[in-house]
Amino acid sequence: MAAVQVPVEQMQKRHKLAVVGDLKERGFFMLKESVETAASALAVTRFTIYNYLNEIDAQVDARSHSRSAVGEDVQG
Length: 76
Known about the structure:
mainly alpha
């Protein structure tokens, strides 16, 4: 959360998404009770954390798809 440099009370969704994305990249969500821990630290529900994770995965999938489509155009 230090990377965002915004107190939790003042964080907007984009800040919290950035924190969750960073935690995911670091493998935090492989740990037991990690979703509950993150939810508590960010003052949201565990369902919100799952929604953030789904949103992050969708963004990654969209980027991957757009890159592969560009690669197909170049090769084709």
